Every structure is written in C-alpha cells, then in structure tokens.
Amino acid sequence: MAPPDRSTSSLMLADIKVLAGLFVAWKLLLLCVAYISPGPGYDTSTTLLLLRAQSAQSENTLLEDLAKRLASKLVRWDALYFVSVAQRGYVFEQEWAWGWGYTKFVGLVSNGWFGASDSMVPWLNSTSVLPGSSLSPLYAQAYAGVLISHVAHSLSVIMLYKLVHQLPIMDKKQRHATAFLAASMHIFSSAGMFMSAPYSESLFSMLNFAGILIHARIPWNSPLEDYGASSLLSLLSSGACFGLATTVRSNGIFSGLIYFHHVYMLLHSRINIRTMITIVFIGLSAMMILSGMLFPQYMAYQDFCARPSDGEPRPWCSRTLPSVYSWVQEHYWNVGFLRYWTLSNIPLFLLALPMLYVLVGTGLIAPTLNIKSSALQSKHASVYILCLALPQMLLALLALTTFHVQIVNRIATGYPIWYIVLAATMVSPMDTKRSDKTATSHRADSSIAKIGSYMSKASTQELMFRGMFMYSIIQGGLYASFMPPA
Length: 486
Fold this sequence. Notes:
Layout: H1 6-36, H2 45-53, H3 62-74, H4 78-88, H5 100-112, H6 137-166, H7 172-187, H8 201-215, H9 229-248, H10 260-266, H11 273-306, H12 324-333, H13 346-365, H14 375-401, H15 408-411, H16 417-427, H17 436-440, H18 447-453, H19 460-480
Helix pairs in contact: 1-6, 1-7, 1-19, 4-5, 4-6, 5-6, 5-9, 6-7, 6-8, 7-16, 8-9, 9-11, 10-14, 13-14, 13-16
Subcellular location: Endoplasmic reticulum membrane
InterPro entries: PIG-V/Gpi18 (IPR007315)
Pfam family, one: Mannosyl_trans2
C-alpha cells in the first residue's frame, strides 16, 4: 500500500485555514455594513414586530442594545416571516410559501440552544453578564437563524472545496487551484447578506452541497451492476440530503435531475439481480427527494382542507394537485408563466441577467472541462458533469419565465457547478505552468495574493468575481435599510 500523500493533505488543510480567515473577515465586514446602515428604511415592519414582541423590563445593557440593533438590521423582508413562523408555527395561509424545514429547524435551534421560552439564551439570565435581559423569544429566533446561516455557510464552503477534488475534471494541480477559487467565490457569493441573515439560503446550500458531495462518491463510470454497498448507501444518503434541502427550499427538488446519470449508465449495464437492486435504491432515493416537497404540502392540506378551522376548505383543495405552495405563489404574489414580464420589471431582469447568463453558460461548458481519461470514460464523465449542471440550468429557465427573476442572484448560491466552471476557466491553463517552487510556496501565500495570482489578466471571470464582491456590499447595505432588491 502506498503511503498517504502528506503534502496534498497539508496543502488542503492550509487552504481550508485560509478560507476560514477569508470567511470570518467577509462576515465581519457584512455585519458591520448591516449595523451602520441608516434608518428603518421605507418599511417599518421589523421595528413594529420586534417592539410588540419585546417584554417591558428594565433598561437594556449596552451589549443588549448592540445585539438588538444588529437583529433589527438582519430581520428584513422574508426574514420577518421566517422568525415569526419559527416562533409560533404556521398561522396564515401565505406563510406556507416559506420553507417548512427551515422554520422548524430554526425553532428547534432556538429552543434547544438559545432557550427561547423566557430568556434569549441560558447564559443571558439574571445571574449572567447581562442581568435583567429584556430580549424577547422572537429575538432568539432571529439569532438562531443568524447562527444557522453562518455555520451552514461555512460548512458549505468546505464541502464545495472537497467536492472539486472528487469530480473527474482536470489534472491534480488544476483541481487544487480550482477548489480554492470556487470555495472563495462561494464565500463572496452574490447572495451576500442573505447568507448571514435569518434566511434559508445558507442551510439550503449546505444540504444541497452535502447531497452532491455524497453522490460524487459513487463511481461515475461504473455500470449499475457494479454498485456495491457503499454506493447504495451513498445513493440513499444523497437522497436524504436532497430531500431535506427540498423542505428548506422547494427548488431543491431540481437536484433529482442528477439521477439522470444513473439512467444513462443503465444503458451501459447488464440487467441482472444486482442491477435491479440498484434501481430500487435509486427509486428510494428519488422518493426521499419527492417527500421533501410532498410532506409540507400534506401538513398544509390537513390544516386547510381536511380539517379547516373555519369549516370551509380553501379553493386550492379541490385542484387535481392540491399544492398550497403553488396556490400561495400564484394568489398572493402573482407568480406564473410570463406573469413577471412587465415593463416595470425590466430593471429586475437586467439585474438578474448576468447570473442567468452564468448559470446557463457554465452549465453548457461544464461537460467540456479538461477531463483526463480514456475516450469512453471521458464521455461518461461529461454526462455525469452535465447531470450535475442540469439543476442550475432549470433554475435559470424558471427564473426567466416563471418566478420573481431577481431572486436568482441569491438562490443560485446553492448550486456548485457554476462556481467550479468559473474557477476552472480562471486557473487553466495558467496553473499547469506553475513551477514546483510556486507550488511549494502555495500555502505561505496570503489569501488576497492567492486569489489575485489567478486574476493577473482581465477576463470575464475576473469581472464576475469583482462584480459579486461589489454587488454583495451594495446589496447588504440596501437589505439592512429595508430597500429593494430582495
């Protein structure tokens, strides 16, 4: 047995440390932007909600005032619904537009970790450094959401870094550089403040990346009859992750398109008992993903159709496919095919156009990445990468034609392929020309120098990277001031 590649392991560990430093610095910058943002904005919903929920007690300490101000800047737009539903459950029909899995998880974290019942956290009580805390349970939901966003985002950065090393693309040096840049871009994601606020984007990214990372362990060039116990377990585990992601955001169901690779490999497989067993496991995995969509719908159906509180079922109950989510989007937000195509929304389409271009363009380019293998294996690898890219291309198509197009700038962050393709085109072929001396000193480079070394010449990818950085800063200030776009 060959000894482990210690240099590669130490290099990866050094990269992760640099990424952690970048992550902390970026998050602190965003939180500072949020904190200093002026006024309540044009909408006072946050102020009214938090004031009504706050218990009347003694004067706040300085630390409590700082914490409350930061919370008021992060609980904006949909976050109002997220923290409210996490605290009291679903009451109004339109609230079912927000992910059941996310609100339930925020509620669990706030109750289990923060002790949301009467005091914000166990260590914020009358005997703590913050005596007489007047922060209400609603603040606990807000800080639980903020905690989840930061932890989930940090984990998804590491998952994306590791995912690149598992994909059948490029050579070893290129993969290493691509992994670092892709993970860096995910830190500076166009979702910006939405990855720090009590929003579902970070948790969705973590779960979706986890599903893809686990799925990537399955041999991409193996016929179905060669799937062993580990591959079958990876199928079920990835399906579970995608299913949980779908409870957080409904577009998680698009990840089921990744399983089209197994359909393709079925054409190159013999039909026998082992193949049939694998097909059953693929079906079970797909059912897990589908259940992530159906289970919340079932819960809503029980409340509004089977046992309506006012005795009258809602109109959507009699539909062939009684989906509360589709009804709410259509009835309350006028979401539907080409409904968003109005003259007044042209600025929003222009705002989303770069991301739509990136999602579709990188999805089409992905199968042609520098795959190093035999002709047949190259074809299998290209199909595999294409299947990984299909969810992001479908997302772009639906954003363009069906739902509020501007949100694609934040929900695209949960799809890894566009990061990887942008990073790969930035490092290739330059990375293959790096000398051994450069590679040896790689871990000693500063984070800014490492990123800058792959941007020595102007390119579309560089402009995209810079654009994401600038957009996130500007968007963060607008978000914290309760100003569009959201």
